[in-house]
Amino acid sequence: MDPIHQFAITPLFGEGTFAFTNSSLFMVLTVLTITLFLILATGRGALVPGRWQSLAELSYEFVANTVRQSAGNDGMRFFPLVFSLFMFVLVANLFGMIPYSFTVTSHIIVTFALAMLVITTVILYGFWKNGLHFLHLFVPSGIPVFLLPLVVAIEVISFLSRPISLSVRLFANMLAGHITLKVFAGFVVQLVAALGALGGVLAILPLGMAVALQGLEFLVAFLQAYVFTILTCIYLNDAIHPGH
Amino acid sequence: MEALGQYIGAGLATLGMGGAAIGVGNIFAQYLAGALRNPSAADGQFARLIFGFAVTEALGIFSLLVALLLLFAV
C-alpha cells in the first residue's frame, strides 16, 4: 500500500555497490530495445519505408528538427548525443508505464548523471571552441556598468542551477506521476476493503481517475523526454554561440 | 509532535505549486491567444512555448520536491 514502495532498488544478483539491481536491468532493457528497434527498422533501408522504418525516420527527423531549430546547423554535430538522450529518456519513461515494472528515470541519481553529462559537454566544448570568449555567456551586452556585478552574479547562479533543474524536473515529474497513480489505485482497494459491495460501486470513481491519469502519464512521459531534449539543445547552443 | 511539524510544513510547501500553476496557465493562455491571432506563426513558436513551460514548471516541481522530502526523507 505504500506508494513509495514501487521505487525501491533491490539487487538481483551480486552484492554491495556493484550489485546488478532492478534499475540496472531496466537500463539494459531500455538500451537493448532502442538498439534492436533502430537496427531492425532501418536494416532493410527500403526506398518506400514500411511502418517500422517510418517510425525510426520519424524519430530521427523529429530530433534533427529540434536540434536545427534550437542550436542551428552547427548544433548537428551533437546530434548523436541529443538523439541518444532523447531515445533513452523516452523509452525509459515508457517502460515505467508498464505495471509492475521499474521507472529508471524516477531516481535523481540517474537523471543527475544525464544532466551532468550535458553540462560537462557544454562547458568543455564551450571553452574548447571559444576559449575565454565563452565567459561572455555571463556578461550580457547592453547592461549599465553599475548593474553589471548584480547581473553577472545572477547569470552565474542561473548557469549553476541548470544541472539541478534539468535533473530534478525529469525525476520529480516521473516520481510525482507514479505516486499519484498508486494513490488513486490504492483508493479502489481501500474502498472495497472498507465498504464491501457499496465500496465496489463507489470505486468506479477512483478507477476512472486512475485510467485517465494513466493516459496523462503517457503524455508526460513523452513531454518530459522532449523537454529534456530541447533544454539540452538550448544549453548546447550557449556553448556554440556564446554572448548571444 | 515532530511529525506534526513535518506534515504542516509539507502542506505549506505545496502552496508554492499554485504559483507555478498560475505561471503555466498564463504561458499557455498567451500562446493560445497569439496563435489564434496569427495561426501561421504558431508552429514556429512551439519550441519556445515548451521551453517557457519547462522553466516555469520547474519551480512548482521544486516545491513539490520540498513537500516529498519533508514527508519521506526527513
Throw out a few tags for this protein:
heterodimer; A: 244 residues; mainly alpha; two-stranded antiparallel sheet; 71% helix; 2% strand; globular; B: 74 residues; F1FO ATP Synthase
Helix-strand pattern of chain B, N to C? Answer: HHH
Order of helices and strands of chain A: EEHHHHHHHH
Mean residue pLDDT of chain A: 89
Strand residue content of chain A: under 5%
Please bin the fraction of helical residues of chain B. over 70%
Average pLDDT confidence of chain B is: 87
Architecture overview:
The complex is a heterodimer of chains A (244) and B (74). With 244 residues, chain A is mostly helical. Chain A has one domain. Chain A contains eight helices and two strands, in the order ββαααααααα. Chain A has a two-stranded antiparallel sheet with strand order 1-2. The radius of gyration of chain A is 22 Å and the shape is globular. Chain B is mainly alpha-helical and 74 residues long. Chain B has helices spanning 2-37, 39-42, 46-73. Chains A and B meet through helix 2, helix 6 and helix 8 of A and helix 3 of B.
Q: Short description, anyone?
A:
Chain A is mainly alpha-helical and 244 residues long.
Give the topology.
The complex is a heterodimer of chains A (244) and B (74).
Chain A: E1 11-13, E2 20-21, H1 22-42, H2 51-71, H3 79-96, H4 108-130, H5 148-160, H6 162-195, H7 197-202, H8 204-240
Antiparallel strand pairs in A: 1-2
Chain B: H1 2-37, H2 39-42, H3 46-73
